[in-house]
Specification:
The protein has about 140 residues and is mainly α. The protein has 5 helices and 2 strands, in the order H-H-E-E-H-H-H. The chain has one domain (about 15-140). It has helices spanning about 5-10, 20-45, 60-80, 90-110, 115-140; strands at about 50-55, 55. The protein starts with a helix and ends with a helix.
Length: about 140
């Protein structure tokens, strides 16, 4: 096999393993940017009867969650692109996503009365989407 033939076959090979991680990171980026940009407007729609959570403005909590998601998305891409020691952290990304699903179920179970219908729908939709991403990511490991 010549050098040009081996380079061509390598270039045509596409590693699908990190794809679920990239899709999850894209979703985290979209949701995170939305939370950062629209926290003030979303806060009263999600928790209409509460201005604060543990003394912190709901909009500030949403903005923090958005920033966290943006950082998590970046971390997910770095880990998904890596092989070797750093690539082993893919299982941590999956575990964090499953923890998000569990947290959403906990929030719905304990505080559904405080959430608006939109808030319940948003938490449910996010939990379902993250659960799908976590399942696909788990299979890709």
């Amino acid at each position: 096999m010549s050098t040009s033939t081996s380079q061509t076959s390598v270039a045509l090979t596409f590693d699908r393993k990190p794809l679920p991680f990239y899709v999850g990171a894209l979703a985290d980026t979209v949701v995170g940017a939305g939370l950062v940009a629209f926290a003030e407007a979303l806060a009263p729609m999600i928790l209409p009867d509460h201005a604060t959570i543990l003394g912190i403005a709901v909009s500030s909590v949403l903005r923090f969650l958005g920033l966290f998601l943006l950082v998590f998305a970046l971390d997910t891409v770095v880990v998904a692109r890596s092989s070797g020691a750093l690539g082993r952290f893919r299982s941590w990304i999956v575990a964090a996503n499953w923890a998000t699903v569990a947290s959403a179920v906990l929030v719905l179970g304990l505080w559904h009365g405080s959430l608006s219908l939109l808030g319940i729908a948003a938490v449910t939709a996010i939990a379902l989407a993250v659960g799908v991403f976590a399942s696909l990511q788990q299979r890709a490991i």
